[in-house]
Write a structure and sequence with these properties.
The complex is a heterodimer of chains A (473) and B (244). Chain A is of the alpha/beta class. Chain A has 22 helices and 12 strands. Helices cover 52% and strands 11% of the residues of chain A. In chain B, helix 4 packs across helix 6 and helix 5 runs antiparallel to helix 6. The chains are: A alpha/beta (473), B alpha/beta (244).
Chain lengths: 473, 244
């Protein structure tokens, strides 16, 4: 996917100015947060489960090559083919080749963020193969001019019921419906034909189980099953970090993934798919391909950002992020929004392309607290800021400003002088009032709020005077 | 019982913007029987440098602060944010310098956010001040999620007869300040603050109280821009000291 993260700030402003979108974001905000809070209560020991999930993910990413080899061996045993892709371009090439080799004209897709990373739909279309998104949210976006997703599990969360009603009326040419069940039914009716006619199904993978060579899929609409069992060919595209050791580990992770993501104790559908259709079986694909994608992941192993590879893509961090809640996902400018996106985008799509993202967080640590695999997201964002500074990627004025400030702060007398001048300046700006309406030294502050006036003198000056009076007594 | 010797870390923001919070803190500590010393060479704990990606600057300021404060039995900070930086981040700053890491760890274990110190360490029975009115409490992020400051300020407020606490929705949500975030992404920051202010208003409280001046300046600035000249914005120290 084309990266637009360099325009974060402008995108964020535009989002704030969009009244309809602001309404939609407000509606979506509470739901995820409340539902998750309720759902984790049914675990007797949420923290214990979280620690166990963290340990499982650590075990994998600390020996990623080993677990991948285990998975590959088992998957081959089940009759699947395992292919490795270095980057998005290779994903597109491999999928296109597979499709061509089976004479595929149409591909049904269940949700895959990696296909977004790779820009797969465009590549398939260019090769004359029709991709059909079947996750309701993804379908809505596809028929709306291929709009990119704004959330990793609820891709169309930025749209309101009215938006979808208008859209379906326009693209389906049907009478405008206003009830969710009616709209869903309409999408089902359109998709049914595609499910029946597609020669190939394409899915992501929530987890790859090394013990059995299986892929585990968590979905809520049943489309995942249609995509993975009806066509003769099933292609799984997933990142190399998604492997886990055993089915037992899967059950631990499944206790925490749907709860963290949608606040469900279990998703409506949960599939563990293993191998190709056997002669005695009625359903399932005759050909199963795993495309395991690197796209920057291997480079993260063993770095300061290693912990990020634990991510199980639940979206809890963005759901709880005050910044994401305020501007939505599109402003982040690439596939992954919110705190996890602000770490992943610089790592996978280039630090120089996403200068703002590590700074686009208040470091409130709400994300770190809710992360089901304990990724210290604020620490990683801070570390990225440090890397930016080291590589000289921050604006020169900021770098000099910080340097001068830190230099002065190490010299108490100079600092005291600076502070008293600063206070006088602020006091002068405020005049007779208790507030400053335009702060020339930090104009961003006063764009949307006032800056309270300082009390008058610094603490150090007042305290010194008090001590002097005390001494005189 | 010998008096507890406390070093007061005023914080750069209190020094600059609201000295009265520093004096209220002094009053609270002294009335609880502490001997309070205010090292006059203190400046900033270095958190802005650390959060901006300037590790060398952050380390230099941490070393300075450690040297100034390591002689005290306790260090008290009227801020969850600076308190968290000293308590949690200081030891982590010196991964490669074991002598400084040891000194940082020692200081960290004796450093407390003000209400945490009063409620958990001193276990005060009463507070010196009085305050009349309804208040709502904003839990600042670093204090709450970094240091576990949640019940401490509430238990202290509960000791004040005239104070009635009206909890707001989302009291644990970030106000949007975020240090330099507030001046890098001013519009987003102010939009987050607006949600906080809406919650403050919905609580119906006469004053919003918090333990971090950064958050309070943000909330006050947004309330005033929204045309609210009445809701008071107070630091917990001012309320407890009866200075508000």
């Amino acid at each position: 996917m084309e990266i637009k993260s360099m325009h974060f700030k402008a995108n964020a402003s535009a989002t704030l100015a969009n009244v309809v979108l602001q309404g939609n974001l407000k509606n979506a905000k509470g739901k995820f947060v409340t539902k998750r809070a309720e759902a984790i209560k049914d675990l007797d020991d949420f923290e214990g489960t979280r620690d166990a999930a963290t340990a499982i993910r650590n075990k994998v990413i600390d020996n990623l090559d080993l677990w991948l080899e285990c998975f590959e061996r088992k998957a081959l045993d089940t009759g699947a083919k395992v292919l490795w892709a270095k980057d998005g371009a290779e994903v597109c090439r491999l999928v296109t080749e597979i499709a061509r080799s089976h004479g595929v004209k149409k591909v049904t897709k269940s949700k895959s963020m990696l296909s977004e990373e790779a820009g797969l739909n465009q590549a398939l279309e260019a090769a004359g193969i029709q991709p059909v998104e079947t996750d309701l949210g993804e379908y809505i976006l596809q028929v709306d001019n291929n709009e990119p997703p704004s959330h990793i599990i609820a891709p169309a969360v930025h749209k309101s019921l009215d938006d979808v009603a208008d859209l379906f009326h326009k693209v389906h040419g049907t009478p405008r419906k206003t009830e969710i069940p009616a709209l869903t039914r309409e999408a089902r009716e359109v998709l049914r034909g595609h499910f029946l006619s597609a020669e190939m199904g394409l899915s992501g993978g929530n987890f790859l189980v090394a013990e059995t060579g299986s892929v585990a899929l968590v979905t809520n609409e049943g489309n995942g099953r249609m995509v993975t069992t009806m066509p003769k060919v099933h292609v799984v595209i997933t990142g190399i970090e998604k492997v886990i050791p055993t089915l037992e580990d899967l059950s631990t992770l499944m206790r925490i993934l749907p709860r963290s993501a949608t606040g469900q104790s279990i998703s409506n559908y949960f599939s563990i798919l293993t191998g190709v259709k056997k002669p005695e079986e009625h359903d399932g694909p005759e050909h199963l391909y795993f495309i395991l994608v690197d796209s920057g992941r291997a480079d993260v192993v063993g770095t300061d950002f290693h912990a990020m590879l634990r991510c199980i893509r639940c979206g809890a961090c963005m759901n709880h992020c005050p910044v994401y809640q305020t501007i939505g996902g599109h402003a982040y400018g690439w596939v992954y929004p919110g705190p996890m996106g602000s770490v992943l985008t610089p790592l996978y799509a280039g630090m120089e392309n996403s200068i703002d993202l590590p700074h686009a967080a208040t470091l409130c640590n709400q994300c770190g607290i809710v992360c089901p695999v304990s990724i210290p997201l604020p620490d990683l964002l801070r570390k990225l800021r440090e890397k930016q500074t080291e590589r000289g990627l921050r604006p020169i004025t900021e770098r000099i400003g910080l340097r001068v400030w830190a230099w002065v702060a190490q010299r108490p007398k100079l600092y005291a002088l600076g502070a008293s001048l600063g206070v006088r300046y602020l006091k002068w700006l405020a005049g007779d009032t208790d507030r400053i309406r335009l702060l020339p030294t930090a104009p961003e502050w006063t764009l949307g709020r006032d800056f309270p006036a300082p009390q008058g003198k610094t603490f150090r000056a007042l305290y010194a005077a008090r001590q002097k009076r005390k001494g005189a007594k | 019982m010998p008096r507890v010797r406390v070093g007061l870390f005023v914080t750069c923001l209190v020094d600059l913007m609201r000295p009265r919070i520093g004096f209220a803190t002094l009053k609270l500590l002294e009335s609880a029987g502490c001997e309070v010393i205010v090292p006059d060479t203190q400046t900033c704990c270095g958190q802005p440098a650390w959060n901006s990606g300037d590790a060398p600057g952050a380390m230099a300021l941490a070393k300075k602060t450690i040297a100034e404060f390591e002689g005290f039995e306790y260090v008290v900070v009227p801020s969850g944010s600076c308190g968290e930086h000293i308590r949690i981040e200081y030891p982590r700053l010196f991964a490669d310098e074991s002598d400084w890491r040891a000194r940082a760890t020692a200081l960290a274990s004796r450093t407390y956010e003000l209400t945490d110190f009063l409620a958990t360490v001193l276990k005060v029975d009463s507070v010196p001040g009085d305050h009349e009115g309804t208040v709502t409490y904003h839990d600042s992020c670093s204090g709450l999620r970094g240091l576990g400051v949640k019940e401490q300020p509430r238990s202290l407020l509960a000791k004040m007869k005239g104070v009635s606490l009206k909890e707001m929705n989302g009291c644990e949500e970030c106000c949007g300040f975020g240090g330099t975030f507030s001046i890098k992404f001013g519009e987003v920051s102010a939009a987050i603050a607006e949600r906080k202010c809406d919650n403050v208003h919905a609580s119906g409280a006469q004053a919003v109280v918090g333990g971090d001046l950064g958050c309070l300046l943000n909330i006050e600035g947004k309330l005033r821009r929204m045309g609210d000249d009445n809701t008071r914005v107070l630091h917990i120290a001012e309320v407890l000291a009866g200075d508000a």
